[in-house]
């Protein structure tokens, strides 16, 4: 069926659903089922059209009308991580991709810069860190830096710092994402040069087994936080059908939710860095198990699970 005919046949019904807000719960539920059927049809045959966007918004409003009086205090915490946050990952999958690609490109710049400029490591990592690590390598304990501080103090310092950096990634987006991109650049350059340093010392594989126990979650969280900053910035630059103020409010709200959703991930990464990474001689299989599980979780939760929810048309109430 052509889109104009589809709209003509259903426009009256949609308008009635939009205007009749004070219906019984049963009628609202029936209306919601009809709208989701129409939305599924529109997504199949007109996926990029304004009709699909309109039906998506109408379905979200009906969903909210049904559940607005439902008590969710007891399970609101669970619903946020089960539905709401994954929905945001799907909605803003482009920003997540851009943040990841920026990280990769800037990491490569860091690697090449460290390779062809002997002074680059000293500038980026600092002479004190480089000298200390050289001494640790000479002692046969290249990752001794992770053993110097008390575990609990280290945990709170690292968790606090990484949470601060993640919120900084997001808040920097208010400057049209320029400073968010700069922060991605700064951290990625450090990451690239940091890894090159250990590979140049013949410790590349060992650095992966040790550092990426916590680094997998930590760097993944920074990619997501970078995406939150890009969301805020793009809401200012590209308001689309919203007014600029509405767009900024929406971008700020969604970006903040994403950064808040990172708290357990960042906390877990800090726990690994403080209590687990210091055991540098643990078996390779154990390191790879932790690393692989962390990576698999991030891929599943940020990419696979949100797409599965979208495919099954399962929504908490956020507009796709």
From TrEMBL:
Residue stretches spanning the membrane: 96-114, 163-184, 196-213, 219-238, 258-276, 282-305
Coiled coil: none
UniProt keyword Transmembrane helix present: yes
Keywords of this entry: Membrane, Transmembrane, Transmembrane helix
Domain of life: Bacteria
PANTHER family (UniProt xref): SLR1478 PROTEIN
Entry protein name: Stage II sporulation protein M
Organism this protein belongs to: Mucilaginibacter robiniae
